[in-house]
Write a structure and sequence with these properties.
Chains A, B: Keywords: DNA-binding, Transcription, Transcription regulation. The structure is a homodimer. By secondary structure, chain A is an alpha+beta fold. The first copy, chain A, contains 8 helices and 10 strands. The N and C termini of chain A lie far apart (61 Å). Chain A binds a DNA duplex through helix 7.
Chain lengths: 232, 232
Amino acid sequence: MSHIDRSLIAELPLFADMPAAALDDILHEARSLRYPKGKAVFQQNEEAHSFFVLLHGRLRVTQVTADGQQIVVRFVGPGEIFGVAQAIGRKDYPGTATAVTDSIALAWPASAWQPMIARYPQLASRTLQTVGGRLQDAHSRLREISTEQVERRVARALLRLTHQAGRKTPEGVLVDFPVTRQDIAELTGTTLYTVSRILSAWESNGWVEGGRQRILVRDPHRIFLLAEGDGT
Amino acid sequence: MSHIDRSLIAELPLFADMPAAALDDILHEARSLRYPKGKAVFQQNEEAHSFFVLLHGRLRVTQVTADGQQIVVRFVGPGEIFGVAQAIGRKDYPGTATAVTDSIALAWPASAWQPMIARYPQLASRTLQTVGGRLQDAHSRLREISTEQVERRVARALLRLTHQAGRKTPEGVLVDFPVTRQDIAELTGTTLYTVSRILSAWESNGWVEGGRQRILVRDPHRIFLLAEGDGT
DNA sequence: CAAGCTTTTTGCGCCTGCTCAAACACTTTC
DNA sequence: GAAAGTGTTTGAGCAGGCGCAAAAAGCTTG
């Protein structure tokens, strides 16, 4: 059995202020797994055999409808807990998690969840906060998709992406993982054609710079105004 | 200080299998409050002073956008915990909860949450399941609103309403609290005009029967087919 | 029971954004 | 470095559903 060093997780909010012995105890059941770009960590409807903490990389969580349409539920970044299906009372995963960059995750068997929160109740409490935050995100998206026009929704999605994974460059803020127009369409409830048109228009204004699976925001304030401002 | 009988909550899933002493302990800090139809239990952005369990009645939870547009987040029914803002790490309520029928709720001060889950960890675990369920609902709605046409979304919303609060009558299933066309529009991300047109069309087919703040589903299977079926 | 208010219906015109098609650009593979 | 694969752009046409307006239908209040 491979040993996992507690320093890998000691800094994460989920495990903050936990004694070293507790961290070692928690890590005892964990495996560390590599997911090369494109590989799925788990599939929608698959039995929820594990839950995870992402150590490195980036995942895209999607759901497909009965007729094959897809939406992007969220992107998962380092330090986040994910795949907590059994914690919210599900037997299977409600979505598919796919690595969009080479990723490393810790995995615990689903059966470890109950004993773990029994011994360390703050884990339940912190997971509740995480899930609560996701619920609010989902409600924000519902509010936006219900009431706002596509361009504004795309602006908001782009801002979120830069906050989640923005890397500052001399040119502006770059979304630091591969994102397709299709991804943005599935985040905002529109089509890849419409996203492409909107980004092209912004690019011709010099506000962003596109590229294959690449978006650089040259003028974040401008995008912010599109997202939040009045019609001016 | 008024005493609240533990029999009021002993049957609720949230408190299932808890000893009588624990229930009494939990109830010690609770107040029971009446909300006549139309009164708000709490307002969006208000400081989250309390969390609640609904004993009787029905609430509508809404959010308004900066420019005054509104969406319906959910309806709350008897037995449900709600207003758990502080449990998910918020200082204020993210939405407004309004009684749509005369309602009675138990209220605990927000400050009681941490001690309560420290003493009864299963409360955190069960709240996590509740919030997780809401997250899945929100994702379902996002999926639907992103990928489906309005008529199908209205069909789904109507089915949900009948499952949440349907009363069987000889004529069909009646949604057992006042729902306006506007409510359904705000649930499905459309306008009250479109909802009215759709319900009128269904009514002329004999599948539903409308009325002021009233919807009777005469042919639930038909509505189910609209929601789930292929295009036939 | 008349007046006033809220909710619902319906008509009409229009626009946002979708669909489909085709070309183009960039990467990866052999 | 050609070929194949994947992602992006752009045009043209069209329609689902929105916005507005006005009337009708139900409550409810004095």
